[in-house]
Design brief:
Strand order of the largest sheet: 4-3-5-6
Radius of gyration: 19 Å
Shape: globular
Number of helices: 10
Oligomer: single chain
């Protein structure tokens, strides 16, 4: 295939390919700062338009973080909502989540990470289900391929019925565009504004769908229609069906 470069998820695989004379590079990212570093590196590798877009996106992301800081400047830490995110990428239930830097975007948006005390959790030190429930989040976000299924299942889960977010109906499905917005990707600016809009609806002075439309047009060169944006914000497939299958 005369391939110029192959991106692989591990150093070992990259080394194995290099030993065969193939140019291989590992780029992995698990938090917002690493996504920025990866975007910068990819721009440098591909050059041209890719570099221009990479630099524009990094500038945009930094601007978003600064904007959030300004918007939240008058809100005391004690007044910020406790937020919990369910990772619904594999339909593993309400106790599958990230810890620490992986959810820094949620902090940018003005939320207190429910599992902040487990930022350095390892497989041996994960919080129990009881410990997570005890955080009693004010807001619950659900993101990933199985988001709509996890949403429905959560409402039928007796373990969660007395959690503040469930009692008050503050459960939000994160949109899915080119990828699920909660994955480590260029969608971070959109995700931050979306979560801010859910946690501080009285402070919203922007149109999320218009913002998403302009974002994808600039960085992906896709002109999404109103109907497509509606499906995106409902985390549905382009044909209106569910993203997940049994």
């Amino acid at each position: 295939m005369n391939t110029d470069i192959i991106f692989v998820p591990s150093r070992e695989r990259a080394v194995a390919l290099r030993e065969k004379g193939i140019c291989a590079l590992t780029i992995r990212y698990y938090n917002p700062d690493e996504v920025v570093a990866a975007a910068e590196m990819l721009g440098q590798i591909f050059g041209g338009t890719a570099r221009t877009k990479s630099e524009a996106w990094i500038k945009n992301f930094n601007t978003v973080r600064e904007d959030m800081s300004d918007r939240l400047s008058g809100i005391a830490e004690i007044d910020k909502p406790v937020a919990y995110e369910i990772l619904a990428d594999k339909g593993r239930g309400p106790f599958r989540t990230y810890y620490g830097d992986n959810q820094a975007w949620l902090s940018y948006a003005g939320g207190i990470l429910a599992t902040k005390d487990y930022a350095d959790a390892t497989s041996q030190a994960m919080p129990t289900e009881e410990a997570i429930l005890a955080t009693n989040p004010d807001i619950i976000f659900i993101g990933g391929t199985y988001a709509t299924k996890e949403y429905a299942d959560l409402l039928d889960n007796e373990m969660w019925e007395n959690v503040t977010a469930v009692e008050n109906g503050n459960i939000f499905i994160e949109p899915t565009g080119a990828t699920a917005w909660n994955t480590c990707s260029t969608n971070y600016p959109l995700l931050i504004y979306y979560c801010f809009s859910c946690m501080y609806p009285d402070k919203v002075d922007f149109d999320m769908k218009e913002m998403a439309h302009d974002f994808y047009l600039e960085y992906y060169e896709i002109d999404f229609s109103d109907e497509q944006l509606e499906l995106m914000f409902r985390s549905k497939a382009p044909d209106g069906t569910e993203l997940w299958t049994e």
